[in-house]
Design goal:
Shape: globular
Strand content: 5-15%
Low-confidence stretches: 18-35
Distance between the termini: 27 Å
Strand order of the largest sheet: 2-1-3-4-5
Number of helices: 13
Helix content: 40-55%
Structural class: alpha/beta
Radius of gyration: 17 Å
Mean pLDDT: 88
């Protein structure tokens, strides 16, 4: 077995174990922006995943109000992270919800925020949003810009912390992989969305999950199509990688 094949095998095994590719270059160095340290998953916590289709991942709407149930949590990274939390914290009475909706942009989160966030009163709120803000602009179905994204996202989090002053925010970096519908022409427009998400995380003291950095590292071990065939929606392997990295950051781990 060649060293590169061995490295790839080790990487895939880390993903399958939900390890978030611990100790691997850029993935292990993704930063969290708060300084408190330690895990944010505490006994009795209500944890809410929010976002677009990457978070939605085919969840069933008729079970959305029931915490911890796989159909209502979808088939993506939110469910994979939830399942690991529910194993690791089996006695802690966690309540985990997913309210991602396919196609959403930031203003659409805001339109449903009362029912789909504020009324749930999460202790931990995770948001992954941004790819539709550029995708729908590029296909002519949305006239928003990076300035719109920044303004809307800032307003959404300001509203959230005003209503839920104790909430712990997790801001996830929007990401693309260069395959499927994605080519190099996307990056000049997309990179400012990534930068904006990081800046917003810093402003609100959120922990930042650097998914783009993570996938940039992942494509050194398997091609982009392995992680997200269309360049946007992760495969099960890509989703597991996301779940591991999300848990690493939210648990306050540096390795």
């Amino acid at each position: 077995m060649t060293p590169s094949n061995l490295d790839r095998r080790t990487f895939i095994q880390a993903v399958a174990a939900g390890a978030g590719a611990v100790g691997m270059g850029k993935i292990a160095s993704a930063q969290k922006t708060d300084s408190a340290g330690g895990s944010w998953i505490q006994p009795g916590s209500t944890i809410l995943f929010q976002g677009d289709s990457i978070t939605d991942a085919g969840r069933q709407r008729d079970t959305a109000s029931i915490p911890n149930k796989q159909p209502g949590l979808g088939n993506g990274y939110a469910w994979m992270a939830a399942s690991q939390m529910l194993v690791a914290h089996s006695d802690d009475q966690l309540k985990i919800f997913n309210r991602g909706i396919s196609g959403n942009k930031v203003f659409q989160l805001a339109d449903r925020w009362e029912a789909d966030c504020l009324e749930i009163k999460p202790e931990v709120l995770s948001i992954l949003i941004g790819v539709n803000d550029i995708w729908h602009h590029r296909n002519g179905n949305y006239d928003g810009t990076i300035a719109t994204y920044r303004k809307d996202y800032d307003a959404l989090l300001a509203r959230t912390v005003k209503e839920l002053p104790e909430v712990k925010l997790v801001v996830c970096e929007p990401f693309l992989l260069e395959c499927g519908v994605i080519d190099e022409s996307w990056w000049p427009e997309f990179n400012p969305f990534r930068e904006a998400s990081r800046e917003i995380a810093e402003k609100f003291g959120a922990r930042f999950v650097a998914f783009q950095d993570m996938f940039n590292e992942a494509v050194q071990y398997a091609p982009a199509e392995y992680w997200a065939k269309d360049g946007v929606h992760p495969s099960p392997y890509g989703a597991q990688l996301m779940a591991g990295e999300w848990l690493r950051v939210v648990n306050g781990s540096d390795s």
